[in-house]
Amino acid sequence: MAVIESMLSITTHPGLSLLIWCAVLLLALYLGRNYAHQFIRSICRGIYSAMRLAASEVGRAEKRLAKRNREVLIARGMEGIERRVDRELSQMNTAVVKNARSYAALHHRISESIAHIDDDHRNSMDVPPSLPNWKPVIEAIAKIEHPGDAQVTEMLTEIHRLLQQQHVAAMNQHRNATRVRHSLLDRMLPLWTRTEKALRSVEQSMASLAGRAEKIDTTIQNYRQMQADTDSAVRVFSSSALTEFVTSALFLAVAAGGALINFDLIALPLAEITGSGTTIGPYKTAKVVAGVMTAAQLSLGLLLMESLRITRLFLVIGRLEKHLLTRITWIALTLLVVLAGVESTLALLRENMLADLAALKQALAGAQPSVVPRSAVPVAAQMAMGFILPFWIALGAIPLAAFLSSARMIAGSLGQAFLRLLAFSLRLLGQTSTSAGRVLTATYDLIIFPTLWLESTIGHMPRKSKQSEKPEGRTGFQKRSKKSSENEEQPGQLKESS
Amino acid sequence: MKAFFALGLAAGLLAAGCWSGENRSVGVYVLLNVAENHSRNLSQDIDTARQAVDFLLQTLAPADTLAVASIATVGFSESDIIATTTFGRRPSVVNDQKRSFRFRFDRFAQRAVGSPYSDLSGGLLQAIESLNRSGTDHKTILILSDLKEKPTTDPARDLPIQMTGFNVVTLKVPGFQPDARYMKLYRRRLENLRRKVESGNARFMIIDDLQQLTDVLTADSRAEGT
Fold first, then answer.
1. pLDDT digits (tens, 9 = 90+) for B172-192
2. Which residues of chain B have a CB within 8 Å of the CB of A365?
3. Is residue B224, in this structure, part of any structural domain at all?
4. ipTM value greater than 0.95
5. I need a surface site. Which of A149, A235, A415, B153 has the fewest CB within 10 A?
6. Cβ-proximal residues to A287 (8 Å cutoff; 6+ apart), any chain
7. pTM of this prediction?
8. Chain centroid to CA A402
């Protein structure tokens, strides 16, 4: 304040002092105008260049990230297709091995059936001789008249009887031969059926193999198509990654709910084992153990899924040999069953503890103990939950793996979007600094406009005669304005050159 | 597999390192005076004491310590301790201990006799010694008494008691409806006790309700499932 007062007291009138100071200030600003403009322009150009440089670097980083994302996305999608092909080939191999193993037996069965059929057919080819036409002979002999001679009568009767006998024997023989033939033909029917059945199974196997081969063919075609047209592959894989991310997040949330219930179920009874007064850090030991047990179930689930080749989070497990993987599967499964049994027992213990606690509270409150018998249903339900929840949590390994896998894609996309936004912001800031430079120089000129006006007026007067000769000429102020506006365009030019 | 073993080993070491078993136990010593004079009667005091004991039994957790002693005597001795226990670690054991504690208190309540005076100083000394011996982290002495001591010329009674880290809490007994003269005396006795406690570097509190005792006890002393 004292400085202002002293400044205003250079004359007897403060107003006049102020006017003098304003004039001095305007003069100073006028004299330093070019330098000030240069300074403002330099600053703005510097900011503009820095922002452009930063934006270009960020843009390059964004492109690198996009490229990497694309590679990862394609690799992931291709891996999925390869896994599908691998699975189909594996199933096909299993089917072929199974069919090949049973082929010898099948061949033997068919050959045997055909041999039987052949034998039967050969045997059935022996057609029994047709019966002699005994009937008219017998009838003719029967019609012969005998005059009453006993000898003749006896002879005729004997002939008749013998003929009858022969006829019956021939009939029986014919019937037997026909029966044998029919039985041979009958026996051929199941053999035919068996052979047909065996051939049908071969046909089914072949059809199944053909179906699988067709599937593999389609998948391979897709694979080639995706390899050839990566843009469409990226679109397809991005969409599937997002879908997988959302669905796996939902399933993971459900699994997390199960884990929380599991934690609550076992934390209280574990206090009976670990002791209720001990702590690990700020947390009760029982709660920590409950948390570790829940995490162990998830880990076992991961191990199980990895060994079953359902998930592929650990390369180390993926590289193990098949017999080792089988061993790991059985170990993980056994441990899970043991944990489930332990939790089921803990659930029973929990129910007993709660009942005891309720009885104690009643006693301390002075109430009579309840005479209502305890129902077995809650106990059974808790035990069942205790047994099922570990498996439920273990199954959570599948959505977890899917979530982690798809989260990489989503995080990459988000990072890309962020970098793009950052580059845009930097570019905008650079452009704004250029505009701000123009505004500042214009504002500067606006502040010192009286001096500029004076300069133009003074410069206008001696050139008046010349101006009359050159009506289209410009004044000094106009020229300077033009020059300054040209100079202000420089950052823009830099933009183009850069 | 090596990575798995290494991971398991690291987790085991971490768990072992974290297994500090930090002591956060609470010790409460109740000094109880069942008195019989013109304004209070025995059954009221017994009821109040029972409520306090029930509240503490419901509140205290495993590894905590609880003791109840009668100071309705001229000279406090070990025989005046009604019940004392340090709860075990297992909730089922703790429940049994609480039942047993309550049983011993009930037995005392049945044969309790009133006394016009109390040996508060002797009781305080005993409580301090007992709680220090128990090794609990948070030590609280709850006084259920009108604080009336027999006038004595023993200079040892007025010696300052070292009770750093203790909380000394006194409950305004519900049946205690003093007249003006009695009120004045009671206030004077309270003030004397406050001076004695605070000179021993302890915290002194007066509570109207047992629920306020929960604020005195630390949060981790609250019973959870026991």
1. 765 555 567 777 888 888 888
2. 54
3. no
4. no
5. B153
6. A263, A267
7. 0.60
8. 5
